[in-house]
């Protein structure tokens, strides 16, 4: 194959712009030059900006709170140490999200929600409990066990989980299934663990015990950076199933509550181990016996979901191929990992316009497959049909850009 001939293309193959078979989809797909106008994106963009700014302000409030009792120096050291496990978790999330990447603003909001809003919620609730106990004149007493094993798991998982639910409502177009739920939940959990780690590392540093700081980093930064992720993805998986099964915004609340239960239980078991077990060695043993199997199970579930997403993409694009929108070679290029790697490698050898067009061709084809899967599953709304037609039009343009052809419906350049 020459450098000028992109993978998935064959000069003798023809494509048509015919509609999908009625039995395959109820959506009416139109060519790019005759597609319906989608609603303005101004509203979602404004909401995204407001959400990110609000969550960012909450994170700044968390930093201010930590500075009041840690000091600026301890806060800085704790922040630097907390960035290490955060980076590891975010790289894992990026791997999970690689097949069908979520919108960057939504991921930024998710991270800030976890690091800012969730932490502020937990702090405010804890302050309310302390004030209530103090105002009871001895009628109520506090308990470290109740705070760590009952209060913290419930409050923290509700706060984190509600962030996933908010994203389900706000970016429903991009929330297609369990993998998306895992991505958003893991990102929120990573943000929460980041702020929490700053506190733990900073406190160990202020005690002046280097050994204690090292053990704290070993337990939280090395052995359990995915602990919060393991808890919260239960909620993300549940809301991902809600998206897959066409649950309405109100119906998703039921799935949210179902996913919240195992998240709280796992969190309570993890926190409770520090009271039941004696010493760091026992905690490490508990981690090896209980947390490692749970973590391995989570990895297997996520790997299965990614493979299922890839199979769905291949199957749905094949249906478009039968209707003439793609060639068989293009389906193989867009719907398989090896095909994508070959296509991206080809793009890297081209000039920037073709390189960008190939990336967009792959990304929008994946989104199209997700949209069609939702249509097939019964989410046959006018907005979703319009989105399908819009993506088909974009793909026609991307193909023309990759091949260096004049886009369909556009006038040729003047001589």
Protein traits:
415 residues; hydrolase; disordered C terminus; mainly alpha
How far is the first residue's CA from the last residue's CA? 32 Å
Quickly count the domains. Answer: 2
Strand pairing plus helix content: what structural class? mainly alpha
Q: Sheet with the most strands? A: none
What is Rg?
A: 25 Å
Task: Give helix % range.
Answer: over 70%
Low-pLDDT runs = 10-38, 411-415
Number of extended strands: 0
What is the beta-strand fraction? under 5%
Mean pLDDT, nearest integer?
Answer: 84
Shape: elongated
Number of helices: 13
What's the order of the H and E elements?
HHHHHHHHHHHHH
Q: What is the subunit organization of this protein?
A: single chain
Region (Disordered): 1-20
Pfam families: PrsW-protease (PF13367)
Keywords: Hydrolase, Membrane, Metalloprotease, Protease, Transmembrane, Transmembrane helix
GO molecular function, one term: metallopeptidase activity
Task: Describe the 3D structure.
Helix 1 (42-70) crosses helix 3, helix 1 (42-70) runs parallel beside helix 5 (178-206) and helix 4 packs antiparallel against helix 8. 74% of the residues lie in helices and 0% in strands. It starts with 41 loop residues before the first helix and ends in a 12-residue tail after the last helix. The longest helix has 43 residues, at 280-322. The protein has helices spanning 42-70, 72-96, 104-135, 144-170, 178-206, 210-223, 227-244, 252-276, 280-322, 328-335, 337-348, 352-376, 382-403. With 415 residues, the protein is mostly helical. The chain has 13 helices and no strands. The chain folds into two domains: 48-276, no CATH class; 312-403, no CATH class. Mean pLDDT is 84; it is low at 10-38 and 411-415. The chain crosses the membrane at residues 45-66, 72-93, 105-125, 182-202, 222-241, 253-272, 284-305. It holds the Pfam family PrsW-protease. Keywords: Hydrolase, Membrane, Metalloprotease, Protease, Transmembrane, Transmembrane helix. Residues 1-20 are annotated as: Disordered. InterPro entries: PrsW.
């Amino acid at each position: 194959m020459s450098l000028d001939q992109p993978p998935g293309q064959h000069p003798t193959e023809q494509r048509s712009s015919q509609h999908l078979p009625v039995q395959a989809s109820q959506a009416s797909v139109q060519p790019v030059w005759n597609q319906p106008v989608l609603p303005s994106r101004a509203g979602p963009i404004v909401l995204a900006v407001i959400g990110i700014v609000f969550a960012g302000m909450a994170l700044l409030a968390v930093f201010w709170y930590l500075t009041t009792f840690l000091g600026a120096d301890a806060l800085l050291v704790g922040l630097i140490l907390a960035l290490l496990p955060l980076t590891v978790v975010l790289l894992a999330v990026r791997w999970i999200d690689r097949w069908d990447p979520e919108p960057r603003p939504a991921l930024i909001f998710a991270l800030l929600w976890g690091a800012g809003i969730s932490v502020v919620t937990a702090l405010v609730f804890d302050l309310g409990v302390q004030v209530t106990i103090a105002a009871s004149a001895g009628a109520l007493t506090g308990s470290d066990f109740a705070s760590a094993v009952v209060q913290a798991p419930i409050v923290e998982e509700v706060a984190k989980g509600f962030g996933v639910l908010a994203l389900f409502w706000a970016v429903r177009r991009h929330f297609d299934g369990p993998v998306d739920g895992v991505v958003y939940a893991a990102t929120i959990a990573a943000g929460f663990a980041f702020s929490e780690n700053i506190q733990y590392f900073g406190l160990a540093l202020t005690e002046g015990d280097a050994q204690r700081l090292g053990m704290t980093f070993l337990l939280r930064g090395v052995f359990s950076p995915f602990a919060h992720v393991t808890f919260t993805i239960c909620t993300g998986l549940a809301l991902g199933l809600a998206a897959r099964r066409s649950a309405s915004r109100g119906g998703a609340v039921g799935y949210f509550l179902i996913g919240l239960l195992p998240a709280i239980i796992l969190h309570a078991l993890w926190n409770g181990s520090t009271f039941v077990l004696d010493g760091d060695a026992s905690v490490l043993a508990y981690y090896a016996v209980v947390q490692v199997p749970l973590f391995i199970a989570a990895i297997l579930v996520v790997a299965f979901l990614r493979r299922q997403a890839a199979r769905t993409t291949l199957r749905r694009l094949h249906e478009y191929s039968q209707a003439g929108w793609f060639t068989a070679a293009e389906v193989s290029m867009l719907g398989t990992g090896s095909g994508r790697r070959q296509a991206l490698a080809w793009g890297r050898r081209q000039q920037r316009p073709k390189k960008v067009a190939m990336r967009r061709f792959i990304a929008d084809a994946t989104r199209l497959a997700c949209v069609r899967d939702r249509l097939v599953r019964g989410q046959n709304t006018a907005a979703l049909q319009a989105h399908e037609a819009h993506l088909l039009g974009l793909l026609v343009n991307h193909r023309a850009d990759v091949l260096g052809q004049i886009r369909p419906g556009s006038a040729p350049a003047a001589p």
